[in-house]
Structures are given as structure tokens and as C-alpha cells.
Specification:
The structure is a single chain. By secondary structure, the chain is an alpha/beta fold. The chain is built from ten helices and eleven strands.
Length: 263
């Protein structure tokens, strides 16, 4: 197992999977400036590593995925500083969307504020039945600043996003699943198994095609329908230009499992 050492996160790479673990359990894995810098570096490393096909983001312990920003760092922020802080966090989540590899959020507990915002920057979210979700920033007289007013609306709709952002109340995992905020909810003791099963499903697919799907969805959602459909056609053409697409068709016709190379 290859491992890169950090202070505020744990970063591990094994069997084509990179796992980034927010490692401040006593602070409920709150996002400090130092931890976000380390997380940013780990995502960059995973993106650049050709041996990595899937990325998992989670939190240490069983109490929290991430309870939000480190509020102790807020006092030093001016209005301009807060704007720049927001822009930096937004760029982190945009980078997560641009990475041509699927990112799974393994939500093992509280997923609040900035924690929910980075979870929404992931492509797939699996939650423990003990997980709780929310955007409680309004209770501190601030607003979500890492995409929470935008991605939440896109995922659950305007009415529910307004409710969550304006009331700052938490919802349980079952409600998050009903709203489409998470893909799957499992008993806490089965969370690792469920994540592993999803990883294996993703690893069985063509990594280059997964990257094209991610690009098509994330770019297309920002366009009007006509432009998005044309962009989809461009991505469709790109997919047909890969070696894996030829292997997929050949394997189907020969009634065997495909052997994808990620090219």
C-alpha cells in the first residue's frame, strides 16, 4: 500500500483506489485551512496517478464525515477575506468535478455545512443510516459559501434547498435519500461493504468512458438543452474513438466479459 503522509488527512492508495480521509475526529473532521490545503493536494495526486481509477472521500471515526468549516478560523476573516475563502473552497469542489475519475463520498456521520458541500462535489454518495445532513450556516448569520446554495438546489430542487438553507435544520439519511441527495443508505455496520461493492462495479467499467460520462453530465447541466445535447454528441463521438469502445462491442458480440484498458 502506497501512502502519502499528511497532518490533517490520511491519504492511501491501494488496488486502483485512492482514499482521502479527513482526520480531525475530535473536531468532527471540521475543515480547517490546513486540512483543505491537504485535501486539495491529495485530490491532485490522485488525479495525476495513472494507477488510480476511483477516489473515495470520507471522515475518520464514526461520528462525522465532516461537520463543516472550522468556525474558530472565521473570526479573522474580513468581508474580502471571506469572499476569497469562499472562492477557494468553490474551486476545490469544481476541481473535484473536473477530475476524470469517479469520486465516492463515504458519509459515515454528520455531514454539515462545508462537509455537505464537499460531499455534493463528489459524484456518488453512500451514507450510513446514522448520517445527518444540513446547511446550518444561517444559524451563525452567514450563508453556504462552497456551492451550497447552488449544488443543493440542483440536487433537491429550489423549494427544499430554500428550506434547508433558510432554516438550517438537519435531515436524516432516509430523507436525504428520498430527496436524491444521496444514492444509497445502508446500516452503519455495512457501510464499508457497500462502498467496496460500488468501487468494484466502477472498476469493472472503462475508466476512460467513466471520465467522459462525468464530463458530459457536469458540463451539460450548465448549458441550455440544445447546447447540452450537441455537447453530448461530441462526447459520444469521443467515446467511440477509444480502444475500450471497440473492445466493448467485440466482447458483446463474442459473448464474453470485456477487458478494458482505460484507453
Amino acid at each position: 500500500m502506497a501512502q502519502k503522509e499528511y497532518v490533517n488527512i490520511i491519504y492511501e492508495k491501494k488496488d486502483k483506489v485512492a482514499t482521502i480521509t479527513l482526520n480531525r475526529p475530535k473536531a468532527l473532521n471540521a475543515l480547517s485551512l490546513a486540512s483543505t490545503a491537504e485535501m486539495r493536494d491529495a485530490f491532485q495526486d490522485a488525479e495525476n496517478d495513472e494507477d488510480i481509477n476511483v477516489i473515495v472521500l470520507t471522515g475518520a471515526g464514526d461520528r462525522a464525515f465532516c461537520a463543516g468549516a472550522d468556525i474558530s478560523e472565521f473570526e479573522q476573516l474580513s468581508a474580502i477575506g471571506a469572499r476569497d475563502y469562499s472562492l477557494a473552497l468553490q474551486e476545490d469542489t469544481r476541481h473535484m468535478e473536473r477530475i476524470r475519475k469517479p469520486i465516492i463520498a463515504r458519509v459515515n456521520g454528520l455531514c454539515l455545512g462545508g462537509g455537505l458541500e464537499i460531499a455534493m462535489g463528489c459524484d456518488l454518495r453512500i451514507a450510513s443510516d446514522k448520517a445527518r445532513f444540513g446547511q446550518p450556516e444561517v444559524n451563525l448569520a452567514v450563508i453556504p459559501g462552497a456551492g451550497g446554495t447552488q449544488r443543493l438546489t440542483r440536487l433537491v430542487g429550489k423549494a427544499k434547498a430554500m428550506e434547508l438553507d433558510m432554516l438550517g435544520e438537519m435531515i436524516d439519511a432516509a430523507e436525504a435519500h428520498r430527496l436524491g441527495l444521496v444514492n444509497q443508505v445502508v446500516p452503519a455496520e455495512e457501510l464499508d461493504k457497500a462502498v467496496d461493492e460500488l468501487i468494484q462495479k466502477l472498476l469493472s467499467k472503462s475508466s476512460v468512458i467513466l471520465g467522459i460520462i462525468k464530463l458530459a453530465v457536469n458540463k451539460g447541466i450548465e448549458m441550455d438543452l440544445d447546447r447540452a445535447l450537441f455537447y453530448e454528441a461530441e462526447c459520444f463521438g469521443s467515446a467511440f474513438g477509444t480502444e475500450d469502445s471497440k473492445e466493448g462491442a467485440k466482447a458483446f458480440l463474442e459473448k464474453r466479459k470485456p477487458e478494458f484498458k482505460g484507453r
